[in-house]
């Protein structure tokens, strides 16, 4: 909202069902949407994003951007269209890292770089943020402050950005799984840490399974087994046959369409 107002642009917040039509009819120059909603748009209009030439800037935020979805978008885009992957949360005043997916020479890892004024690093497999926009804590919830906001020594060796160990400034532990790319040092977001489950003694990320099975799939755990809720069960089954056994759901059920919240995220 503030980005549009600061630029002097008009701002439109349509309902989910009307968003694609409004972007087309009103000649929007920029859209901001979740990866789940972008996937739904690409299914609704196989010519996207080229069929919306006026939309030069496509910003994805709110969820990890699956590599398959990113590649599908890039294969269809016009040269004038830019895809930006944005990372952040409420505790960091929304955005704190980004990646211009259409930048020349971009590393294939899909990693993120911190915005000016922020530092984004990985500690113990968790993404940690420090910087000027960081919140001081949670109002009237002191019990939540210590586990989430901490001034740890994060000067450990390894690829990617790191904090100065002696700074003592607060850092926010996001609860998001992360790794640092050994080639370029960018931070790669792997979804929520609580999204990682133990199935028959093997640690599996539901987000990773969903990416392997394609768009329109939500993976949940029921009675110790992975269950794939799919908009297209047969397509998900075909994809599952090509991936390692530990990622294969024990059951598939049809859920078309998947239930989604107002931002397009799947409501598990």
TrEMBL record:
UniProt domain AMP-dependent synthetase/ligase: residue ranges: 2-138
Database matches in InterPro entries: AMP-dep_synth/lig_dom (IPR000873), ANL_N_sf (IPR042099), Beta-ala_Activ/Resist (IPR052091)
One of the GO biological process terms: amino acid activation for nonribosomal peptide biosynthetic process
SUPFAM superfamilies per record: Acetyl-CoA synthetase-like
Pfam family, one: AMP-binding
Database matches in PANTHER family: BETA-ALANINE-ACTIVATING ENZYME
Protein name: AMP-dependent synthetase/ligase domain-containing protein
Taxonomic lineage from the root: Eukaryota, Sar, Stramenopiles, Ochrophyta, Pelagophyceae
